Amino acid sequence: MRTPHEPGARPRHDAPSPQPAPELHETGAFPREARIRRRWEFDRIHRDGLRVRTPGFTVVAHKTLTGSRARFGCAVSRKVGKAVIRNRIRRMMKELFRRTAADLPPVDLVVVVRPEAARYAALGLDDIGQELLPALHTAARRVMTHKSRPRRGPGGRRR
């Protein structure tokens, strides 16, 4: 009789033991629950969120409506550069978020890349992190301590 750990042995399909979901930085994965994907979510964050500006990026933060983890979205316009440059910057930002997601409170973060950030495509992950990581943490801290007030509608009246 073969044991379950021998090559060629069939795995046992008993009730699996519950295990906590791995953190983003442990697996390198970027699951759906950690991404901002819908247009209305981006619109809500841009409309109601708090902004932190750096020379190359604008970070917009808003308290999350779903889940208990930080979520990430990015917007890179064609003004930044050609597709290769934009995709490289996008990949570096995602990797930075993966590494720091466990340290962030449950907030939605959207990073808008400015044309000045095109230089980071050649510099690397450490250089983009020096500018972007403090902005992510500052935006998350501000949105968690910010008291929301009702928005004013047309004519200055509260909605």
Overall number of structural domains: 1
**Low-pLDDT residue intervals, each spanning 5 or more residues:** 15-22
CATH class: Alpha Beta
Total strands: the figure is 4
CATH architecture: 2-Layer Sandwich
Mean pLDDT across all residues, rounded?
82
Rg over C-alpha atoms, rounded to the nearest angstrom:
20 Å
Please state the overall shape, judged from the principal axes of the Cα atoms: globular
Strand content: 15-25%
Measured distance between first and last alpha carbons: 72 Å
Helices and strands, with pairings:
Elements: H1 24-27, H2 39-48, E1 50-53, E2 57-63, E3 71-76, H3 83-100, E4 107-113, H4 120-123, H5 125-145
Parallel strand pairs: 3-4
Antiparallel strand pairs: 1-2, 2-4
Which descriptors apply to this entry?
5 helices, four-stranded mixed sheet, 159 residues, Ribosomal Protein S5, domain 2, alpha+beta, single chain, 15% strand
Provide structural commentary:
This protein has 159 residues and is an alpha+beta fold. A hairpin with a 3-residue loop joins strand 1 and strand 2.
